[in-house]
Amino acid sequence: MTTNTETIKTLINGQWAESASEATIEIKAPHNDELIGRVPSLSQNELNDSISKTVAAQEDWATKSIQERGSILLKWADILESRKEELGATIMKEVAKKKSSAEGEVTRTADFIRYTVEEAYRLHGDALRGDSFKGGSKKKIGLAEKAPLGTILAIGPFNYPMNLSASKIAPALVMGNSVIFKPATQGAISGIKMVEALIEAGLPAELVTLATGRGSVIGDFLVQHPSVDMINFTGGTATGEHISKLSSMIPVVLELGGKDPAIVLEDADLDKAAKEIVAGAYSYSGQRCTAIKRVLVKDEVADELVQKIEAKVKDLKVGMPEDNADITPLIDDKSADYVQGLIDEAKEQGATVVAGDKRDGRLLNATLLDNVTTEMRIAWEEPFGPVLPIIRVSSEEEAVRIANDSEYGLQASVFSNDTDRAMRIAEKLEVGTVQLNAKTERGPDHFPFLGVKSSGLGVQGITEALRSVVRDKVTVINM
Ligand SMILES: NC(=O)C1=CN([C@@H]2O[C@H](COP(=O)(O)OP(=O)(O)OC[C@H]3O[C@@H](n4cnc5c(N)ncnc54)[C@H](OP(=O)(O)O)[C@@H]3O)[C@@H](O)[C@H]2O)C=CC1
Ligand SMILES: O=C(O)[C@H](O)COP(=O)(O)O
């Protein structure tokens, strides 16, 4: 095992620095415990100083033309893409994501940034005439422009340490805001490398405070910081709810957990359904908020569907991220124990193991459980791991009822060859997005992306993300 004891500097006060206290957090690769680096554990005082500079820097940044801001971000995208292999290797090691997906995340991030800039150039305000309201004067013209909110707190999760950070940072910066970026601790090295590229691209360094440190230590402080004008968070529902309670009088966008169902009707193309379900449920070992996390299948086709899913699950490669395995070790012991606990409990309550249920430390084989009932925790809880429960239903109505009984409401899939029927079900599902005959997923990234109920607040997706970091600034010309 190789070790790397280097402390990777973070960006505070416009400079790359360690914590004055020299406090650090060790970052180890989840799949082999290799020490891949240490990141500074910043104190509240250090953060305070840096945040005041980040806030001050925003004033000048907002006066720049959007083309000037955009050109720096476009350069950022080019640098990221030119380092796809190197940055992909960092993501792969830090969060145990398979090599091709880790590199794919870098490319997707560059594409996301480019589209964000193009879309920002077209985000215009409005001009309104007073006389369109009863009694109003034609001599009054209201100019409603889009003004930056100020300083955005971007908090990212471990599972997309670059993409879900850049998707918060790029809209904020291009619209003239400054940024406090709190990366997930397991993901902080990827976040730092991403910001290094941003500064190389020409961004004034004081515009970003890179707040490395544990969320449990600095999270509440950042969320309640009086200089924060808006929070954009992706992560667990419990953390998101906590943030929404702590924050006060500022907009908050939250993208949280999910329990996305795939509803499979008796008239579905079962080969297609099985293919989409397996890709949706097990990619990145199920550590995606949009993963398919339960299948609600009509009794008449359940046996056939389970067989088809089983065949595909058995084809999944289980192993290490360097070997491009489909199923790789989970992010930490706690997560692996939690997933195993859900599987064990379901088995005790009568669920049938069709595939998987093998474990080597954090590496859990892709597990398929049949005959899961609504009495079992796995029917309702989000495992964030490679396990898929099959719940058999006798009617379309039962499928919709179980789908909607969840506390979550991110996405759902409906598989049917009858479009009218699928649309009828889609209308009834209490989720942000329904996918007809395809797996649940966030992309394409310019589509609105949102969760209802405990799955989130506000909307992401490029256009909505841009709107979320600006406000109307109205000037009335009285002629
Ligand atoms: N919807 C989604 O996209 C995702 C959902 N999840 C869900 O969340 C669970 C845990 O995953 P995880 O990534 O650890 O999610 P967390 O919610 O624990 O962490 C997400 C981010 O929030 C930070 N954070 C932690 N506590 C606070 C706080 N009090 N105030 C502000 N920020 C805080 C974390 O920092 P630090 O890393 O330092 O703790 C991290 O940057 C998963 O099992 C899954 O259910 C996870 C990832 C993505
Ligand atoms: O937070 C998540 O897990 C992501 O938003 C899911 O994105 P994906 O559907 O592209 O994997």
From TrEMBL:
<dbReference type="InterPro" id="IPR016160">
    <property type="entry name" value="Ald_DH_CS_CYS"/>
</dbReference>
<feature type="active site">
    <location>
        <position position="255"/>
    </location>
</feature>
<feature type="domain" description="Aldehyde dehydrogenase">
    <location>
        <begin position="16"/>
        <end position="473"/>
    </location>
</feature>
<dbReference type="InterPro" id="IPR015590">
    <property type="entry name" value="Aldehyde_DH_dom"/>
</dbReference>
<dbReference type="InterPro" id="IPR016161">
    <property type="entry name" value="Ald_DH/histidinol_DH"/>
</dbReference>
<protein>
    <submittedName>
        <fullName>Glyceraldehyde-3-phosphate dehydrogenase</fullName>
    </submittedName>
</protein>
<dbReference type="GO" id="GO:0008911">
    <property type="term" value="F:lactaldehyde dehydrogenase (NAD+) activity"/>
</dbReference>
<dbReference type="InterPro" id="IPR016162">
    <property type="entry name" value="Ald_DH_N"/>
</dbReference>
<dbReference type="InterPro" id="IPR016163">
    <property type="entry name" value="Ald_DH_C"/>
</dbReference>
<comment type="similarity">
    <text>Belongs to the aldehyde dehydrogenase family.</text>
</comment>
<keyword id="KW-0560">Oxidoreductase</keyword>
<keyword id="KW-0521">NADP</keyword>
<dbReference type="InterPro" id="IPR051020">
    <property type="entry name" value="ALDH-related_metabolic_enz"/>
</dbReference>
<dbReference type="Pfam" id="PF00171">
    <property type="entry name" value="Aldedh"/>
</dbReference>
<dbReference type="InterPro" id="IPR029510">
    <property type="entry name" value="Ald_DH_CS_GLU"/>
</dbReference>
